[in-house]
Amino acid sequence: MKKTMKVLGLALLAGTLAACVNDTSVGIIPSDNQYFPGKAHKYEYKTLVGTAIEDLNYLKTQAGASAAHFANFEDGLLVHNSYGVLEKNLATKVTQVNNYKQFDIDIRTDVPWVRYDGTQYAPIINGKATPQFVSADDFVASAKAVLTQPNGSETAYLIYTFVEGAAAYYQATFLTDKILNGGSAYAKYKDDGEFAKKLNSLVVELIGGNSPNYSASDIPDIKNFKRVGIEVVNQPGEKGGGTIRYRLTNSASYFPTLFTYSCYLPVNAIFLKEVRFSYFGSDKDKLLYNGPFRLTASDEVEIVYERNKSYWKPEVVHLDTIRFKVYPADAGYNYTRTEFEEGRIDGFTINTKDSEGWQKYIEGPDGTGTILEPYDPYVNSRDYDQIDYVYGLHVNVNRASNSLSGTKSAKSYATTGFNTNVTTVKNTEKALFLQEVRELLIASFDLAQYTKRYSELPEYQAQYMINTYVPRGFVIDDNGNDYTKTHYYEEWGKHNLDRVAQDDNPTKVDLDKVDEIIKQGQYANVLASYDALEPLREKANAAIEAYNVANPTKQITLPINIEFFSIWTDDESKKEDSPLITSWNQRINGLANVTTFTKTTPGMTFFIIPTTDATTSNYETITNNGNFDISATWGWGPDYGDPMSYMNTFTIGGDWSSIFGYIGDENTHNLRLNAEGTALLPAESLLSAYTAKVNEANAEYEDINTRFDLFAEAEYMLINELAVFRPLTMTGQGRQVSISRAVGYESPSGAYGLSSSRLDGLWVLVDKLLRSERQVVIEKYDANKAAYTAEYGAINIY
Fold it and tell me: What structural domains and CATH numbers belong to the chain?
């Protein structure tokens, strides 16, 4: 009997293996795999994606939707491994010099550049087809393209903020372009002496500090990129390689974390010249590929990757084809489930609003299943704590100059029948310059009502909430302490010592008490009650009255119409905003018993109105033109491993400047009441003090603990004092329930940069995993990660 069983078992296994020979869509995971040895896997992965591809120019765009794709097409110098540890990738050796002020990096040889069809790129050079390989020259070419200001790169600041001479080259390309195309006003700068004088002021304007004091003799080298601290120091051979050097303006031990982001990816200079920068990345044939996958098809319905068969690290690529179906705008709550059940995708997350799916997979026919112990044994139920985009409530403080200047339309996408015109918009703008008005506007936003959209289960509605801009677990200081839970908590505690003092020492902050109040995944301890808003209402009304006294001919008229731009664009989802808008109007006006608000509702100072005309097609137009007063649509993900990656976004000229009206000192003024509350103080620049604090922190590059303390001061100012931003959600955290054939425990995973978007290391199993099987794998993975990070820390590149 045992022999029969053994023979039968061998026969079944042989049959499976024989099938693999004939069916190339199925394989067997090697027996030495630590997580899934011997399991059958597929070579095709089918999944969903939010939008069609718009732009793959990784030298220009910083859009997350684009980065999720080109992260799989291009390899960079470094990448995070599956445990989140930063390691070498195209780099084979990294040497830091002069206390992290210079980095010399040897480049891997024999990494080919291929076209979308998989053939190696081989341009004609000196009459001969010459196969191209990644080399140190490609990193210089990339930096030069990014730093050419007329190219309009959105990520150039990630180079010129750090690299010696990069700001000068960037501004020199700007000025050179103006000489050619800007008319007679720039003609005098053809003289190198005049060029140098202007360049000195432009560099200070861009990065601050003292004048570099360039003279006419410096200009030729600056224009030719010779002063930029990025150079090839060991020449590449026939199959690429070589050594690239980065010289920094100041020491920065965290600088290598920037190598995980797009502007530090290589580009082949010959190909870039061939297709031209303006077309680079515009389609599959306008890119070269050195990463694990190639883009072979892309339209409004589907995106297809194919394996790069020339990839230098083939052992980590387990898929031949990846198919992304573009998520339709009119999809219902049951869409992903039905797509999975009908075999069109390989996994889905179970939505609490899909009542049929929730009963089928979570509760079961007798209703005994729970989110912690789902009825279906294949449902994976797990708490996640991953760094993701932080979405927030943003006030557009300078909408009139943003969306009404020049030829831009004055039309606002507002409630049907409510015609927001130039006068109305400018009236709101005047009100939003008042700090007390902004404070009330943000504080009266009903977090309890807002979070109901995320789950039908009350206990999970707040799980995505975040009360800091920098998430916990992002970076640690020299003592191994988390920036957020140590430095920011300490700063928050200093301002709220009456609530969080240590029991045995009332002058010291109890970090555990701070955590209880502002920890992620809850709003209960930060949501202002209806009654607690009354002092803010009084201050806001006093500020409006003071403004009108000081400006009798340009008064703020009531009600002030504040247009809220939500993330929802379809009719079904917009229903989520209706109770939020009602609650917001009740709380901001102190009218608890009013349920219907119109322009003429008695006793109303503020009228919150939704952008009900917003659709998928005009969503981008609204955001890019700033046609709103307050928004919950934008999120930020970090580019590199330092708090500056978050804090820079709100500085004067920072990433949010053009979207939310933070244009600069000259027209972004803040007005607030004096201490007596009787009159307005003189206008002040809204972001000058914050920008100065961020710059002070960024200038501290020797003592990381002090650097983090200064960033914490800036973050506290941003969230609690400026009244322009309130963090809302980060969906990488919280309890998720899903069913999937995909298992990514060997895929790159990083808190910043492009690593977490990569699909190398991903296995897609033929059969679904039981929850019990997955839990065993998770325990093994967690143990492996703990051991690895204990040995190597967060960075393992030297």
Answer: 390-466+526-729 (3.10.105.10)
| Averaged pLDDT for residues 599-622 | 74
Q: How far apart are CA 387 and CA 641, in angstroms?
A: 12
Residue 602 neighbours by CB under 8 Å, 6+ apart: none
Strand, coil or helix: 739? strand
Kind and range of the H or E run holding 42:
strand 40-42
Alpha carbon distance 492, 489 (integer Å): 5
**58-107 per-position pLDDT tens digit:** 999 988 899 999 999 999 999 999 999 999 999 999 999 999 999 999 99
Long-range contacts, stretch 522-530, CB < 8 angstroms, 24+ apart: 522/462, 522/465, 523/447, 523/448, 523/451, 523/462, 523/465, 523/467, 524/462, 526/447, 526/467, 527/446, 527/447, 527/448, 528/443, 528/444, 530/586, 530/587, 530/592
β 44-49/321-326 pair status: parallel
Residue 591 burial by Cβ neighbours in a 10 Å radius (0-12, 13-18, 19+): middle
d(CA 542, CA 154): 41
Is residue 410 pLDDT above 50, yes or no? no
Q: Where are the alpha helices (DSSP H) in 63-214?
A: 64-70, 136-146, 157-160, 166-181, 192-207
Identify the H or E element spanning 41.
strand 40-42
Residue 289 DSSP code: B
Residue 609's beta-bridge partner residues?
Answer: 563
**DSSP H helix total and E strand total for the chain:** 26, 30
Mean of pLDDT values over 195-206: 95
Q: Average pLDDT of 485-494?
A: 98
Residue 171 has which token pair?
A: 């501004």
pTM higher than 0.90, yes or no?
no
682 contact partners, CB below 8 Å, separation of at least 6: none
Distance between CA 292 and CA 105 in Å, rounded? 22
Q: What is the DSSP secondary structure assignment for residue 487, as one 8-state letter?
A: I
Residues 6 or more apart in contact with residue 167 via CB below 8 angstroms? 160, 161, 203, 206, 207
Q: At residue 613, does pLDDT exceed 70?
A: no
In terms of DSSP H, where are the helices of 479-592?
489-495, 497-500, 511-518, 534-550, 571-574, 577-589
Determine the Cα–Cα distance for residues 58 and 597; give it in Å rounded to an integer: 46
Residue 64: Cβ within 10 Å count: 15
Most confident of 52-66, 130-144, 450-464: 130-144
> What local confidence, expressed as pLDDT, does residue 570 receive?
58
The DSSP result for 769-796, as a single string, is PPHHHHHHHHHHHHHHHHHHHHHH-SEE
HEC letters along 600-630: CCCCCCEEEEECCCCCCCCHHHHHHHCCCCE
Establish whether the linkage from the previous residue to 559 is cis, with ω within 30° of 0.
Answer: yes
- How many angstroms separate the CA atoms of 450 and 242, rounded? 54
User: First CA to last CA across the chain, in angstroms?
Assistant: 58
